Each structure stands twice: as C-alpha cells, then as structure tokens.
Amino acid sequence: MQTKKLYDEYMITSMVPGFDPVEVESALGTTIRSASGEEYLDCFSGIAVCNAGHRHPKVIAAAKAQLDQLVHCCTYVYYSPMAGRLAEALAGITPGALRKSFLASSGAEAIEGAMRLARHFTGRNEFAALTHSFHGRSYATLSITGNSGRKKSGGPYMPGVVFAPAPYFYRCPFGSKTEAECAERSAEQLANAIRYQSSGNVAAFVAEPVLGEGGILVPHESYFRLVKEILDDEGILFLCDEVQSGFGRTGKLFAIEHYGVEPEIMAMAKGIADGFPLSAFIARPDVGDSFTPGSHLSTFGGNPVSCAAALANIEVMKEERLPENAAIRGEQLMGALKPLENELTLVGEVRGRGLMIGLELVKDADKTPAAEAAKEVKTRCREAGLLIGVGGSFANVVRLQPPLVLTETEAGRIIDTLSKVLREVSGAL
Ligand SMILES: Cc1ncc(COP(=O)(O)O)c(C=O)c1O
User: pTM of the entire structure?
Assistant: First the structure.
C-alpha cells in the first residue's frame, strides 16, 4: 500500500500498532470506503467525531458556503461573525449557567485553556482528577490523565495533581457490592485526596462524565452529585470534559445532563463540528470573565469554516433528534449484547450509555484482561465489514461508538456480526 510506505517513511510514530490497516478513500453517513474498494460499517466515527454521520449534507453545504466567503481571520484580531454566532449557540445548548465560550482547535487545547481559566478564577493552582481518565496529549492534560500507558515514559509531569479512584464498578477498588456503594466510596476518596494529598490549593476537579479511553466507564447516577457537594464545600470548580461524550453521543446532548449536575466549566471537541477541527470551553459568566481581553488566545481557534460546520451540526442534531436516536439504538445494542455476559466467559461486562458502549473482555472469572482476544475480535470484525474500536486501561475493551445516524438495520448488523465473532474467538481461546 503506497500510503503505508509514505507513513512509515515520512510520518512521526506512523500507524499505532493494532489499529486498522485500512486506507480510507471516502466516507458517507455510516459507511467508510477503502482505496481498494471495500465498504465498512463505521462503528468508531473517527473516535466519536462524526456523530452526524460522515459528510452530512447540511454540514458540508454550510462549510462550502463559508469557504466562498472567509477561511480565516483570527478571532482576537478581528470580529468573526461565525465565532460570535457559535458562542451564542453553545450558550443555548449547554446546561445551566454556562454562557461564555473560548474557541480553540483540539480537545487538549480546550482542556488546557479551561485549566488555565480555573487557575485565573480561583487564584489556586492544583488540580484533582480520576484514575483511568484521559484528557489529551499536551503537557498539562497528560499531567491530569490517570493512565501511565498514555503518559508513555514522558514524566515527570506537572506537580500539583491529585488522583482519586474512578467509580469503575466492574473493578471496584473497594470491592463494593453495588454501583451506588462504589460511587459513594469513590467520592469519599476524592474528598480524601483533596484533603490529604493536595496543599489545599485545588482550583478544579477535571473529569469525563463517561470515561472513554479508560474503557467506557459509566459512573453511577449518584456519583457526580456526591462529588459536586464535596467540590462546593471546598470552593473547587468542576471542569467537565465532554470532549468524547458530548454532542449527543450518550443519548443527551451532553453526558453530564444525565446526572443533573451543573459544571462551572465544560470542554468539548470531537463531535462539535462533525469532523471539522474545532473545540471550545464554556464557562459560567463570572468564571469566564476572569480572563480579561488578551488573557488567552488561539490563532486557529474558532476557524470560520469549522464554526459554520458546527452551527449546521447543532441544527442537524436538533432536526434529526440524534441524541434520541443514540438512546434508542444504544438500548437496542445493549439489550442484545448484555446477555453475552452470561453466555461467554470472554465477555466480562457490557456497559454504556447511548452509542458509547464498551464490552470488557476477560480470560477468566478473576477478570484477567483479554487484550489479545480484543485485538482478534477487532480484526475479525473488520474482515466481516465492521470497523470497531478497542481501548480501555488494559486494552481489553471493545468500543462501539458509531455515528448517531445509525439505523435499526445497521445496529442489527453490528449485533449479529459482533456476537458471531465473540463466540468464534471464545471458542478459539
Ligand atoms: C475525554 C477526552 N478529552 C480530551 C481528549 C483530547 O482530544 P484531542 O485528541 O482532540 O486533543 C480526548 C481524545 O481522545 C478525550 O477522549
């Protein structure tokens, strides 16, 4: 493959081992076409990016119209109409008092900017975060990432970060018998981490409402309410990382809405513009206004073409009720795949919300992670025409994160193919 040669010869890090050796030529809706003519049902959306489906016609039309008008102007040198309109739209769709946005280009840039804002507002400079979390690949975002594999021997990282255990019920560090108990104990440990590990100077707690890269970990419904009480008592901000869980993926526009909790700052990226590079963080007005003009800037942030695409993407989400479809198709997938937990030792747990679903694969009743099996499942799914993801802290979680335009028939195809492959791989073990 010519592109593989170019990658190997000219691209730093080249292809990550275990990723799909597919040369993607084009994509539309839920279908990816390779240069050699194969068609695949996309179950990963470019890692939860193309939520409205690849090249949604309304998003493409908006971007094309913008291309004919203005491609770049830099949001802090001139007034950019598209940036202003998108900021207004984000204030309209995000929970609670979130109102003032900063527009950037990537998830890591949004989280890092939001951390800087939290520091400005509180005058404090430490952070609390969760084990199994992932927040990006810049220095500060890796520092608050609770996964040494992701940090890849780049340490030591930023000091002043304390970690509390994620409420990962399947592997609950406290051996809790119920999800509610695991959530309660995990929240207590956050309070302890803040009290005993920090120097009493924590600006913000940063967390994903569903931990994506950690293996699609869905905290119990009580967790963020318990956490928010602790944070409010200590005057610590909640910086909610919706980079992967936002824009309809979990059945609501933002996953934190499932918890009835209002963060002071929220970061988003991935699904914001259906594939155009863009990110944002949005804050309560008093928090946002602690940055004065010039406090924080980004040359490419809020690119007009990306903003036009994002505005169209938000309209599409509403018109086509994509969060609702994610909830319905998610129930279809979960309903059919959950029984595999009882049928196959290999399937340790099936969990998720909306179209953010993980199947944790294990070798035995001791829950020994089955990373090799997960890789094999991925390969066999690809050979059967499904592109799925594999992740998690132990590389043993099959990830289903298809575009939210997924139909009932397509969901049925995922169920049939994946169940068959899991049974085959189980038998081969
Ligand atoms: C929850 C979360 N936060 C932040 C990031 C970083 O986003 P980006 O790769 O756009 O910098 C990711 C990327 O996977 C993510 O899943």
Answer: 0.98
With vertex at residue 217, the alpha carbon angle to CA 213 and CA 220, rounded to the nearest 5 degrees, is 155
Tell me which residues have their CB closer than 6 angstroms to ligand 1: 47, 106-108, 111, 134-136, 208, 212-213, 241, 243-244, 269
| CA distances for 171 relative to 37, 182, 184, 368, 369, angstroms | 42, 10, 15, 11, 11
Contacts of 399 by beta carbon, 8 Å cutoff, 6+ apart: 44, 216, 357, 358, 388, 389, 390, 391, 392
Output the CA 86–ligand 1 centroid distance in Å. Answer: 21
Å from CA of 427 to ligand 1 middle = 35
Burial grade of 26 (CB within 10 A; 0-12, 13-18, 19 or more): exposed
> For 8-32, what is the mean pLDDT?
91
What residue ranges define each of the domains in the chain, with the CATH number in brackets? 2-55+321-428 (3.90.1150.10), 59-319 (3.40.640.10)
CA-nearest residue, atom 8 of ligand 1: 107
- Ligand 1 atom 7: residue of nearest CA: 107
Q: What are the tens digits of pLDDT across the range 229-261? A: 999 999 999 999 999 999 999 999 999 999 999
What pLDDT is stored for residue 14 in this prediction?
Answer: 79
Rounded to whole angstroms, the Cα distance separating 188 from 195 reads 10
Q: Does 428 score more than 70 pLDDT?
A: no
Mutate to test the pocket of ligand 1, among 49, 135, 137 (most ligand atoms within 8 A of CB): 135
DSSP class of residue 178 equals S
Atom of ligand 1 nearest to the CA of 211: 1
What pLDDT score does 429 carry? 61
- Is the confidence at residue 401, as pLDDT, over 90? yes
424 CA distance to ligand 1 middle (Å): 33
Residue nearest to atom 10 of ligand 1 (CA): 107
Quote the pLDDT of residue 17.
80
* CA nearest neighbour of 110 among 302, 253, 275: 302
3-state secondary structure of 77: coil
Average pLDDT over residues 81-90: 98
Which numbered atom of ligand 1 lies nearest the CA of 208? Answer: 1
**pLDDT (average), residues 399-418:** 98
Q: Could you tell me the distance, in angstroms and rounded to a whole number, from the CA of residue 226 to the centre of ligand 1?
A: 25
- Tally of helices (H runs) and strands (E runs) in the chain: 15, 15
